[in-house]
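Comment thread on ticket #2218

A.B. wrote:
> Attaching the input chain for the structure job we discussed in standup.
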Amino acid sequence: MKPDTAKPAFEILSSRHFPAWLRSQGASIAFTTYQVGKVFMLGIHPDGKLHITERTFPRCMGLGGTPQTLWMSSLFQVWRFENSLLPGQQYQGYDRVFLPQMAYTTGDLDIHDMIMGPEGKPVFVNTLFSCLATVSETHSFRPLWKPPFISALAPEDRCHLNGMAAIEGEPAYASAVSRSDVADGWRDRRRDGGIVMDVRTGEIVCAGLSMPHSPRWYRERLWLLEAGSGYFGYVDPDSGRFERLTFCPGFLRGLAFTGEYALVGLSAARENRTFSGLELDDNLEKHSTDARCGIQVINLNTGHAEHWLRMEGLVRELYDVLVLPQTQRPLLIGVQKEEVRKMISIEPEASDEV
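C.D. wrote:
> Ran it. Output below, let me know if you need it in another format.
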């Protein structure tokens, strides 16, 4: 009998010092892939090795929240998870256990980026209707803002509004693949029609981009992923130009920060019209590499990718990346296994008095 040499269906590899770096940050990482409908939690074992768990949610994409609360979008719902552990408490070695506490049914809005908005409610990019929105107690969503060039709210994905940056919990910037105002018009402008808008004024602060994604405000600078070229960089506030910092070998989506580092999500390019015909193809050839799926850790001071995480096998695309600060080993409880029936927590009383 020949030995079984088949590759595993899914495998995670990392650079040699990635686990030690993650532990030094006192943080863990969550990331989503709508391609196979999984949300991953990546932390550290007590022995210093990587620890990863995954849960299944259909078409899970946007992530947002705090060390205690996690919001996530899926195919037709927005989920809220709460950490059930008290400070200093652990459960089977986990220092955060996120339980599903609420799900808003939104319908299939193709929700992309998400933030924890005012009053603890999520604000999300409603890509299908080309607007920013929040959840509603009585309807599928409540619109909050749309680009000035979008003439009407319609389920047409006109400009492929996809990314959002917040400042002090309020939406501040949004990215779109084009300024199109017709159904699915953005596909004709993928190479250089991308823009970043100031949500507060409606003005375009950066244009001429190739499929921009994941704008983020960090340390007084607007950072951005130009997925169509493979570059991570920032928007210069004076010139309005996108300043390229680091080439990453993949279609870029998902951006988070911790300390002096950026975590950039990479996807292996699909063989279809959406991903093809972009500058990314030329840049991959120029650097003599193939598109990868994983996360690169970039030093903001040097632009060097000092650490990396790589996924091989079944998972080919990522969407969002979220840093969970002050967390070393998180666990997210799903809804498809029996564990959710047995995870019961009691809210502590406000006072010992009866």
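A.B. wrote:
> Thanks. Noting for the ticket: The chain has one domain: 10-338.
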